[in-house]
Design a protein that fits this description.
By secondary structure, this protein is an alpha/beta fold. The protein has one domain: Alpha-Beta Barrel (TIM Barrel). About 35% of the residues lie in helices and about 15% in strands.
């Protein structure tokens, strides 16, 4: 598989990564994308390696904790062949629930030691602050993260869901190699300039030499075209409560999906492949990390790396605009810098 550079500090990864969150769920939501299947999850990771994927994304809060351990078991002796990206930044209760954010120096150090232990490694390749803690200056948090690079425990630093201003401030303390954020055909916030006319997050990252890692590039499965009516999903499934998958928003967004389906039929591709090919065409500094816990969806996603959309097709997809409805609940949105 083609390689792409994330940032200008030397980090190179496969053009498509694998998000592993769905294999374990998130703190407080273990069944957010249905029941985990550990055996199939490990088989999916093995198959990703066979297909040329060497970029695996996990986080402390996935499980919590168990997702990092699952990835370590799956990689086994092949850990040296891959780039492991993991994230910290949430406060997690003793019973495994999410209790806000924590960017304090003490939590930075605690979180790293836990990540290293669970992943069974002496270093993290790419370490993100998962969400910003507004009570702690970003310079302070990134300063302690930079200490871990100096100590050899981390190789590259990243940020997730942070504003252009925060990215600039962090990058001034230590080079940031990647910014992870939701970006897809139905979520275009990264492309939009700030309310004050400041540069977009995409433009800011490119100015500073920072790679872009879109998560949820398939709209939590919606853009794959196989998601059942969310109303039929169990209450434990996150998508049943996703604002974009409810009521009038869902009906309006189905029209967006219809346009993607139409293009997929013409190109003899799947909707997921069209959506991923659109993102891959945004630049060689863009590395999507579609999440899946099944081999059949992984194979479908990888097919997007050999699909080239024409300028006319890309313009048609650009013109679809963003999805109807907010991408998160108000509580979740409060932890994102927009």
């Amino acid at each position: 598989m083609q390689k792409r550079a994330l940032g200008t500090q030397g980090l190179s990864v496969s053009a498509l990564g694998l998000g592993t969150m769905g294999m374990s769920g998130v703190a407080g939501m273990p069944l957010m994308y249905g029941a985990p299947d550990e055996a199939e999850g490990i088989a999916t990771i093995h198959h990703a390696l066979e297909l040329g994927i060497d970029f695996f994304d996990t986080a402390e809060v996935y499980g919590p904790y168990v997702n990092e351990a699952l990835l370590a078991r799956a990689l086994g002796t092949r850990r040296h062949e891959v780039v492991i990206a993991t994230k910290f930044g949430f406060s997690i209760t003793p019973d495994g629930k999410m209790a806000g954010v924590d960017g304090s120096p003490a939590n930075v150090r605690r979180a790293l030691e836990g990540c290293l232990q669970r992943l069974g490694t002496d270093h993290i390749d790419l370490w993100y602050q998962h969400r910003r803690d507004r009570s702690v200056p970003i310079e302070e948090t990134v300063g302690v993260m930079a200490e871990q690079v100096k100590a050899g425990k981390v190789r590259y630093l990243g940020l997730s869901e942070m504003s252009a201003e925060t990215i600039r401030r962090a990058h001034a303390v230590h080079p940031i190699s990647a910014v992870q954020s939701e970006w897809s055909l139905w979520e275009r916030n990264l492309e939009e300039p700030g309310a004050d006319g400041s540069a977009s997050i995409v433009a800011t990252c490119r100015e500073l030499g920072i790679g872009l890692v879109p998560y949820s590039p398939l709209g939590r499965g919606f853009l794959g075209g196989t998601l059942p009516d969310p109303a039929t999903l169990p209450d434990s499934d996150y998508r049943k409560h996703d604002p974009r998958l409810q009521g009038d928003n869902y009906q309006r967004n189905l029209r967006l999906l219809t346009a993607v389906n139409r293009m997929a039929a013409v190109r003899e591709a799947t909707p997921a492949q069209i959506a991923l090919a659109w993102l891959l065409a945004k630049g060689n500094d863009v590395v999507p990390i579609p999440g899946t816990k099944r081999r059949r969806y992984l194979e479908e996603n990888v097919g997007a790396t050999t699909l080239t959309l024409s300028a006319t097709e890309l313009a048609e997809l650009d013109a679809l605009g963003t999805a109807a409805g907010p991408r998160y609940t108000e509580r979740a949105l409060s932890m994102i810098e927009r």
